[in-house]
């Protein structure tokens, strides 16, 4: 009998201590889970220890890397953004190259919409130019192969002062588009007239005389230790104080306004006709081969650096990349809205990197294919991967 009583008491004590321990373990687990902060997409990418990223990120300041990433969350008809930044600094100058063509294309469409006399299909030519074209053709060339002459024609239509004034009115204050690209009259302040052809009638849009170019007043405008000029080397830093200025944050916010206009006030939006916006989006995402370019020379990723820039394979139809790149003077920049319609993944990413190891400009010796493009391609893939984890 005494033995049975002892066994009964022992079982009660054992049950009590086991139960308490389980409750305590439960509480520890609960506290541990609740106290763990979620890892942001930017942290996941920066800590990925990927060799293509690591060799650059370990010397991020030397490569002048800046990255901005936006997570997009949809709730019924509402869209919200969550931004992440790495070394983004509007005051730290980098050369934007052809990425300036993005705001110029959308502003040209907006100005056409305001004018009402012409459409994207109205033929026109620049005074003194033998090429007759349309805004539709020029904008398609800008996004398919980053055509400089197409940009210059739109620049003539808009003018420097109009471009900068209009962007600032939309809340895009950190920007200064000063010049044409790859032409002898790049810094000419007078814009040539455009002649539009409507029903055999010529209508001239008078050119404008713009104010003199203001020198930029931000950091790191003098770059490198020398540059080539007329086949000779000039042994002093190259001065970018009169060059175009389009920082990562401004470029990124232009993309937001294009893709998600309803998230901005009417004053901040680009005022586009519905058909023109649909055309713009199609043009931004269309591949060179679909615009009639030879796919051997102009592969799918010719001007799409994120995810596919280091490959020549076809980009799947379900993956739409709405973007604009820039590359010159060793700077590589891409601003993209990437939408995987098959897996319901979407995000905006903008990044820039500088690859000019010898610090000489205009010599054509840059590490685009060896370092820059592989970095941007892998960066895109890693950010895409972070979004597969949250879906």
From TrEMBL:
It holds the Pfam family Beta-lactamase2. It comes from the Bacteria. One of its GO terms (molecular function) is beta-lactamase activity. InterPro entries: Beta-lactam/transpept-like (IPR012338), Beta-lactam_cat (IPR045155). Residues 85-341 form the Beta-lactamase class A catalytic domain. GO terms for biological process: beta-lactam antibiotic catabolic process. This is Beta-lactamase class A. It comes from Galbibacter orientalis DSM 19592. The lineage of its organism: Bacteria, Pseudomonadati, Bacteroidota, Flavobacteriia, Flavobacteriales.
């Amino acid at each position: 009998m005494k033995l049975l009583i002892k066994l009964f008491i022992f079982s009660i004590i054992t049950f009590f201590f086991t139960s308490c321990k389980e409750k305590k373990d439960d509480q520890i687990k609960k506290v541990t889970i609740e106290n763990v902060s979620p890892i942001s997409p930017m942290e996941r990418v920066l800590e990925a220890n990927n060799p293509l990223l690591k060799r650059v990120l370990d010397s991020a300041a030397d490569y002048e890397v800046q990255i901005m990433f936006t997570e997009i969350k949809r709730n019924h008809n509402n869209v919200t953004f969550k931004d992440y930044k790495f070394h983004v600094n509007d005051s730290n100058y980098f050369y934007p190259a052809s990425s300036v063509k993005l705001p110029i294309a959308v502003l040209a469409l907006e100005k056409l919409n305001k004018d009402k006399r012409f459409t994207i299909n109205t033929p026109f030519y620049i005074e003194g130019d033998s090429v007759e074209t349309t805004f539709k053709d020029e904008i398609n060339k800008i996004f398919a192969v980053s055509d400089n002459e197409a940009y210059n024609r739109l620049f003539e239509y808009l003018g420097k002062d109009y471009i900068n004034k209009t962007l600032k009115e939309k809340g895009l204050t950190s920007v200064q588009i000063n010049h044409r690209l790859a032409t002898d009259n790049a810094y000419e302040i007078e814009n040539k007239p455009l002649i539009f052809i409507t029903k055999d009638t010529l209508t001239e849009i008078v050119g404008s005389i713009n104010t003199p170019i203001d020198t930029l007043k931000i950091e790191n405008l003098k770059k490198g230790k020398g540059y080539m000029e007329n086949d000779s080397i000039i042994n002093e830093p190259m001065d970018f104080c009169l060059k175009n200025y389009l920082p990562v944050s401004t470029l990124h916010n232009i993309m937001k306004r294009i893709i998600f206009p309803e998230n901005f006030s009417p004053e901040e939006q680009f005022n586009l006709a519905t058909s023109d916006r649909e055309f713009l989006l199609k043009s931004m995402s269309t591949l060179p081969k679909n615009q009639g370019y030879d796919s051997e020379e102009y592969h799918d990723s010719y001007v799409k650096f994120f995810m596919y820039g280091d490959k020549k394979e076809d980009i799947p139809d379900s993956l739409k990349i709405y973007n604009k790149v820039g590359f010159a003077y060793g700077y590589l920049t891409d601003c993209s809205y990437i939408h995987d319609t098959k897996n319901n993944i979407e995000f905006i990413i903008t990044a820039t990197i500088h690859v000019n190891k010898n610090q000489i400009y205009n010599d054509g010796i840059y590490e685009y294919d060896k370092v820059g493009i592989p970095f941007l391609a892998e960066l895109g893939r890693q950010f895409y991967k972070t979004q597969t984890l949250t879906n």
